Amino acid sequence: MKIPKPTIKRLALYYRCLNRYREEGVNFVSSKDIAERLNLKPSQVRKDLSYFGEFGKRGLGYNVVKLVDELARIIGVNKVWNVAIIGAGNLGTALANYPGLLKHKFKVVALFDNDREKVGKKIAGIPVFHVGDLIRLTQELNIEICVIAVPELAAQRVAEIAEEAGVKGIVNFSPVKLRTSIPVEDVDITLSFETLAYNILKANPEMLKLIEEQ
Amino acid sequence: MKIPKPTIKRLALYYRCLNRYREEGVNFVSSKDIAERLNLKPSQVRKDLSYFGEFGKRGLGYNVVKLVDELARIIGVNKVWNVAIIGAGNLGTALANYPGLLKHKFKVVALFDNDREKVGKKIAGIPVFHVGDLIRLTQELNIEICVIAVPELAAQRVAEIAEEAGVKGIVNFSPVKLRTSIPVEDVDITLSFETLAYNILKANPEMLKLIEEQ
């Protein structure tokens, strides 16, 4: 069965939302409760969750603990994923320092760079290796996910090395559309800026008028 | 009219996709063409664009140049937005160095930090000011968007200062749910990791089995 991409993106949101309900000690929630917290329609929530089987009971709602476990299993975060960051520049360093990743079961086990000055040092307690050792260390450290945080021109080459090394998937921060046969998730920060711009204009219709008069 | 959030997010994708068609010299595209490039259903594309009026002609498709201009106007990227980054650490530095922002009409005009060591220096050619000057400089530099790239504990306080300064919207990289009355767009990088994890498991069903046996 083909699950629509937006549904997959929302699963992670449901997982986060349900986890919060669990922390709050809530036992059952309705699709309406979930929808309200996430600013979605209840029918959307029911439809999304129905792709993965029937978790809800009419009148009672969803069993929070059961649904959290089920979502963790579906998303694949009932295990810890070993992550390597390629590129120990500002972005790679920011990611290595980001506590949210491990909290969500993504453990950065290594950084890689081609700058010999950086190799052998540690960033946020994580060792920096030479990118030439990626293939060897992918096996030794059981690296499953690579984060591409290198300059645009190096991105495709690094992706090919990662794939050859046996990495299972890539989180790509470069603006390059990577050609690989393993799953890639592109992180495009400018999309967030554009969504914000739209929401600002909606909240400030007088700005729209000024722009059009420019 | 209330436009669904996922539609708004997709508008930026349509804009990018259509821009590429324009660069390629394509004059007309169908909803099917757009849908294929973005891995969506053609019916979804038609529905999303219909919220903003009828741009397509039956049999001929969408006029690329007209649709790009229309989308730019709707999203609000037919003007350059002045952006300030609060927090000149690794993340703030990475963002200041990111050429994609200006390419998409978001111009970083200032960085702010509370570290006196950093104030007065430049990062990627952009001056670093003390966060205490945010209110004054928001007026002087016409700052419209603030990026919050400060540690979690400082995020809410910084958001309040930005709002008081008259900033129109916030791109928030902290994991804090900000309380403001101006629009906020949260950037949650772990969602990308979770989507990737799901896609890896789908591509490697044997992994799922191993996880369940753990």
TrEMBL record, chains A, B:
GO MF: DNA binding; DNA-binding transcription factor activity
Binding residue positions for NAD(+): G87, A88, G89, N90, L91, G92
DNA-binding region listed in the record: 13-52
Location of the protein in the cell: Cytoplasm
Domain CoA-binding: from-to ranges: 76-177
InterPro entries in alphabetical order: CoA-bd (IPR003781), NAD(P)-bd_dom_sf (IPR036291), Rex_actinobacterial-type (IPR058236), Rex_DNA-bd_C_dom (IPR009718), Tscrpt_rep_Rex (IPR022876), WH-like_DNA-bd_sf (IPR036388), WH_DNA-bd_sf (IPR036390)
GO process terms (BP): negative regulation of DNA-templated transcription; response to redox state
UniProt keywords, alphabetically: Cytoplasm, DNA-binding, NAD, Repressor, Transcription, Transcription regulation
Main location as per UniProt: cytoplasm
Gene Ontology CC: cytoplasm
Family to which the UniProt record says this protein belongs: Belongs to the transcriptional regulatory Rex family.
NCBIfam families: PRK05472.1-3, PRK05472.2-2, PRK05472.2-3, PRK05472.2-4, PRK05472.2-5
Function: Modulates transcription in response to changes in cellular NADH/NAD(+) redox state.
Subunit structure: Homodimer.
PANTHER family per record: REDOX-SENSING TRANSCRIPTIONAL REPRESSOR REX (PTHR35786), REDOX-SENSING TRANSCRIPTIONAL REPRESSOR REX 1 (PTHR35786:SF1)
Protein name: Redox-sensing transcriptional repressor Rex
Organism lineage string: Bacteria, Thermotogati, Thermotogota, Thermotogae, Thermotogales
